[in-house]
Design brief:
The protein contains 7 helices and 12 strands. The chain is α/β, with parallel strands linked by helices. A 4-stranded mixed beta sheet has the order 3-2-1-4. It has a 4-stranded antiparallel beta sheet with strand order 5-10-11-12, with no helix packed on it. Helix 6 links the parallel strand 7 and strand 8. Helix 5 runs parallel beside helix 6. The relative contact order is 0.21.
């Protein structure tokens, strides 16, 4: 089924399967595809964010299961706390899956990674649909954060969405990109990967 995703400014994308079938205003796309399902989102529709710290967030941090919150807390474990935990491969895979979900909740559609040494992490990332992009330096600097606006580096968006491109994008509940920069990626209300709505704020 073809689905039209539109933001509060009337900008819209028509999604067919894993691809962008068309882009334009909501009125234009509804007229062109009268039988399409329409999803109208608050805020602005963007190509989605690239998190520059994919390796650090997925392979050098452990994301606790909510059932572990009493023992481990809710924030990612790094450094001495991570070494003391010494996760096995199964826990690394589960941690990576939770880490990906938390990245999606911040409008991330791609992660910049160096070499990923843990197979469990590579497998979890591959199954997620999150795009993996290379990076020009082994260590990008800044502070690893699920919110790319909080890491201290210039924020990078994925390439613009247009007809024929992969259906990867995110919607943020802000009036414009200036407000997004101020309020951060925690304002994400929806993230779509390969045409699938993988995150929706409840």
């Amino acid at each position: 089924m073809l689905t039209i995703h539109a933001d509060s400014k009337g900008r819209a994308l028509a999604v067919q399967g894993a691809w962008i079938a068309d882009a334009g205003s909501l009125d234009e796309l509804v007229a062109a595809y009268p039988s399409a399902r329409v999803r109208q989102w608050p805020g602005i529709l963007t190509p989605g964010l690239v998190n520059p710290h994919g390796t650090e967030l997925l392979e050098a941090a452990y994301h606790p299961d909510p059932r572990e919150a009493g023992e481990l807390g809710t924030e990612p474990l790094t450094g001495d706390a991570l070494r003391a935990l010494a996760p096995d491969d199964a826990r690394w895979g589960a941690s990576a899956r939770r880490g990906v979900q938390r990245m999606l909740a911040h409008g991330t559609v791609a992660a910049a990674c160096g070499e990923l040494r843990r197979r469990a992490v590579r497998d979890a990332l591959a199954r997620s649909g999150l795009a993996v992009v290379g990076r020009s330096a082994p260590h990008p600097g800044g502070v690893p954060s699920l919110d790319p606006y909080a890491c201290g580096l210039p924020v990078e968006f994925a390439p613009p969405r247009e007809r024929g491109s992969a259906a990867r994008f995110a919607v943020f509940d802000v009036p414009d990109e200036a407000a997004l920069s101020t309020r951060g990626a925690g304002t994400c209300v929806a993230t779509v990967i390969e045409g699938r709505l993988l995150y929706r704020r409840r």
